Amino acid sequence: MHTRRQGRARESPEETVQRFRGVDFLHLDELLSEEERLARDSVREFTSREFLPHVQEHVRRDGSFPLKLIPRMAELGLFGANLHGYGCAGMNNVAYGLIMQELERGDSGLRSFASVQGSLVMYPIHSYGSGVQKERWLPALAAGRAVGCFGLTEPEAGSHVAGLRTQAKQRGDVWILNGTKRWITNGSIADVAVVWAHSEEGVLGFLVEKGQPGFEVRDIHGKFSLRASITSELFLSDVEVPEANRLSSARGLSAPLSCLNQARYGIAWGALGAAMACYEEALGYSLEREVQGGRLAAKQLTQQKLVDMLTEITKGQLLALRLGRLKDEGKLHPAMVSLAKRNNVDVALRIAREARDLLGANGIVDDYQAMRHLVNLETVRTYEGTHDIHTLIVGEYITGQRAL
Ligand SMILES: Cc1cc2nc3c(=O)[nH]c(=O)nc-3n(C[C@H](O)[C@H](O)[C@H](O)COP(=O)(O)OP(=O)(O)OC[C@H]3O[C@@H](n4cnc5c(N)ncnc54)[C@H](O)[C@@H]3O)c2cc1C
Fold first, then answer.
1. Mutate-to-test residue for ligand 1 from 196, 264, 349, 383, highest number of ligand atoms within 8 A of CB
2. Long-range pairs for 178-181 at CB < 8 Å and ≥24 separation?
3. Confidence class for position 17, pLDDT limits 50, 70, 90
4. With a 6 A CB cut-off, is 231 part of the ligand 1 pocket?
5. What is the pLDDT averaged over residues 313-339?
6. How are beta strands 192-199 and 148-151 bridged, if at all?
7. Is residue 388 within 6 Å of ligand 1 at its C-beta?
8. What gap in Å lies between CA 207 and CA 191, rounded to an integer?
């Protein structure tokens, strides 16, 4: 299918981006419903036309998310797309995964925005919140009128979630929250923060609203990775949260972990989008670049690199699609999600690095995408359970032994 490209006129990096038609070596499109393909194609169009022309300025500036796209993303049904009711699109999990793929084909920061809003904020409210909380927040979050963030990680507690130190103490019908949350996506633009804290009743979840006395937010600067995304620290000092703002059905660490499982599922798809962008760019570049008396694409070493990329993308697609079908059938186990997140992010990172290499010196400038995806994927490897943590989850699942 790729031989068609030979002999076409030289194209600019922008044209490569606009031309993106996806990578589908095994005709997996035939396994998708029309609705799933439509969801994917509309987000593909959005990413190409409305996001990618502006990503460079957001990455170059001191790291900012294109806030003006939020209403448009809401219009496309991208927030909480696999949730039902309350203004959510109610798509199946394969369509949801394809959406994540297309967003991350643009940038991991774009996908992160939708992941946090949907899987880490709307999902816990939908699953653990009261009727009043659902009515108040879900339609607003789905419509992009409100933004949310998810506060689990702390300066001293990342992978070791059980070590979180934020405390919630009950006083009458209010809870007093004290602690610090770090590395929180969308923290400073959030109207509501889902904050997880230890209490005498175990880990509980709270909806902390912007501007509450004692609640302060500060952005983290100097990031090399995920620059088109806002990352913040949340400071809670004697913040009074009414009992009505507690997620009443959430009790214990299994509640935040269930949210992470939703987001990790989306990442297993999303990482493939970044990998596809890098593969397409490297393929297009190597077909045009002349090296030592011939096209770069005509060198055996180059073909091996491109074939390895295509092979890993194809394997990752099969994995993601099967995962989605299992999720829709209610047969998904968290260890399956761990295996997929671990694998697909790992291969995406390797593909981004190989693509950057094939672009030579051009690969280090932001006219091309590979380097941006490469540094973004370093974050994606770390957040939502590091590569190591997913190794331990799958290891424990298959051996029954918790490794120390
Ligand atoms: C840009 C960005 C956005 C983020 N957004 C959010 C957000 O919205 N909300 C949120 O709550 N968090 C968020 N995070 C935090 C993220 O989830 C954590 O960074 C992640 O869980 C890892 O925690 P840590 O950074 O403390 O690393 P650590 O847990 O300290 O890990 C350091 C190293 O030790 C390894 N390690 C840890 N435990 C073990 C073990 N038992 N055995 C062997 N090796 C181990 C890890 O794999 C890693 O290599 C974000 C992070 C980033 C970078």
1. 383
2. 178/236, 178/237, 178/238, 178/239, 179/154, 179/236, 180/154, 180/155, 180/233, 180/234, 180/235, 180/236, 181/151, 181/152, 181/153, 181/154, 181/233, 181/234, 181/236
3. low
4. yes
5. 98
6. parallel
7. yes
8. 10
| Rounded CA separation 97/103 (Å) | 10
Tell whether ligand 1 has an atom less than 6 A from the beta carbon of residue 119.
no
Atom of ligand 1 nearest to the CA of 229: 1
At 271-322, the pLDDT tens digits run 999 999 999 999 999 999 999 889 999 999 999 999 999 999 999 999 999 9
Interatomic CA distance for residues 131 and 140, integer angstroms: 14
Helix (H) or strand (E) holding 199: strand 192-199
More confident residue, 209 or 292: 209
**CA 306 to chain centroid:** 25
- 91: which 2 tokens? 């798509």
Helices 108-115 and 93-106: angle between axes, nearest 10 degrees: 140
Q: Is the CB of 393 under 6 A from ligand 1?
A: no
pLDDT value, residue 292:
87
Judge whether 305 and 359 are in contact, CB under 8 Å.
no
Q: What is the pLDDT of residue 63?
A: 85
Q: Which H/E stretch holds residue 281?
A: helix 254-288
Tell me how crowded residue 52 is: count the other CB atoms within 10 A of its CB. 20
The residues, any chain, with a CB within 8 Å of residue 141's CB and separated by 6 or more, are 79, 80, 117, 121, 122, 125, 147, 148, 192
Q: Are 136 and 144 in contact (CB under 8 A)?
A: no
384 is catalytic: yes
